[in-house]
Amino acid sequence: MSLVYRFRKFKLENGTYIKRPLIDIVLKKGNKSMEFSVILDSGSDITTVPKAIADFLDLEIENEESEMIGYKGIGKIKNSKVTIIFKGKVQRLDEVLHDVPIAVMQDPEEQEVVVGTRGVFEHFKILFNDSKSVSITRII
User: Fold this and answer.
1) What separation, in Å, do the N-terminal and C-terminal C-alpha atoms of the chain show?
2) Cα 22 vs. chain centroid, distance in angstroms?
3) Which residues contact 19 (CB under 8 A, 6 or more apart)?
4) 127 is in which domain, residue-wise?
5) Could you tell me which residues are beta bridge partners of residue 43?
6) Rounded CA separation 116/48 (Å)
7) What does each C-alpha distance from 97 to 39, 43, 82, 124, 138 come to in angstroms?
8) What is the CATH classification number for the domain harbouring 24?
9) Which tens digit of pLDDT belongs to each residue from 59-91?
């Protein structure tokens, strides 16, 4: 069974619109969770999560800080892991990945969650259909 997400219009700072592959996920740790529509980014090596969200979920964050280069420049990160639930149209179609490695962004201005490749793409066949839709199928 595949999860299919339509590309959605996203307004840029200059007022123009672009279509992006936004998918619906839940980030979960223990009994705490948060639901988001996020960018599925095949060009991002790792899933990124703002520090405020990591703090809310009580994620166990490594002490060691490193740098990550992104489209906004160089930022400080710390590593952690989280459960990601990819939302289907009905709950029984949800796909769950446990212990997905993530980069917790240390800059408080960083507010976006982006799903990257590490710990995610190796579990799914992912098909980007032009700028119309993205389908995610679990590899068994």
Assistant:
1) 11
2) 9
3) 7, 8, 9, 10, 131
4) 2-138
5) none
6) 7
7) 17, 20, 9, 10, 10
8) 2.40.70.10
9) 999 888 888 777 667 788 899 999 999 999 877
Parallel, antiparallel, or unpaired for β 32-40 and 47-50? unpaired
- 112 pairs with which residues across the strands? none
Number of domains in the chain: 1
For the chain, what percent of residues have pLDDT higher than 70? 99
Are the CB atoms for 23 and 134 separated by under 8 Å? Answer: yes
β-bridge partners, 95: 86
Query: What is the percent of the chain where pLDDT is above 90?
Result: 74
Residue keyed to tokens 């839940």: 26
User: Which pLDDT value is given to residue 74?
Assistant: 77
Question: Residues 54-57: contacts with CB within 8 Å, 24+ apart?
Answer: 54/80, 54/102, 54/104, 56/32, 57/27, 57/28, 57/29, 57/30, 57/32, 57/33, 57/82
